[in-house]
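Notebook entry, structure prediction.
Reason for the run: the old model in the group folder had no record of what sequence produced it. Starting over properly, with the input documented here first.
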Amino acid sequence: MDKQSSAVKNYSNIVFVHFFNKETMCYERGHCHFLICIFAGELIIKEPDKEDIVVSAGQCVFVPRNHKLTFIKRPSKGVSYKGITMAFERNFLRLYYQSLNQKLIPLNGSATKDSVIKLPSLPNINSLFLSLLPYFDSDCKPKDEVMKLKRQEGVLALLDIDSAFFTILFDFIDPWKIDIIDFLNENYMFEFTLEEIATYTGRSLATFKRDFKKISDLTPQRWIMQKRLEVAKEKLRIEGKKVADVYMEVGFKNRSHFATAYRKYFGYSPATVKL
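New structure, fully documented this time:
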């Protein structure tokens, strides 16, 4: 997109976006949490097999990390899209967590599985984003420390809305680690490295390997392979799908590799339907 059709500024993980009478679409499976405020136009958030979420001007949403989403930013009622996104990466949240009064942190709670959380219209959220709005029209770059304070203000605003945000934002803290098996059951078809899986589940690589040994005698790679094959068998046997359709759905890039692995695991070809 050329300079005349858009204006995008990124100041220390606070992104200001203005698309002039254009529609743009991007795919996101973020390593960060996002806090998004729409000033004009509208944002459409799409997730496979779910109803689209429409975020209109004046609304704010929180998008937890690790969800496979498509964002469409487009004009609405003749007004072009204008919005601000705050990103909360893991290291930022770790440092912020260390600064909190530990006595005020809830000892239990459960993180939501929702991919998008619409936020109520509250003074703390509204005033935060209104204070950032002047940077849209200014060529003066704010200091990194100022933007860091604004993001901290964003975290505080979320924690003030609902204590459940403690478990969402600080899911790297025991006992709030994301369940490994739950994560793998939902994401077995994707090509993640072990380092990425560890990060997504709130662990260091060493901690992930140690925790995984507690729940399975298999290696993570072998567990994922068996999961793909078991799901493939169900799709072939119960859903009546064709091999040509199934192997990619479960995460294989090569049909020949899929057929070989399937035959080795089950003892017969995937083209042979058995109960």
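Summary: The two ends are 53 Å apart (CA to CA).
The old model has been moved to the deprecated folder.
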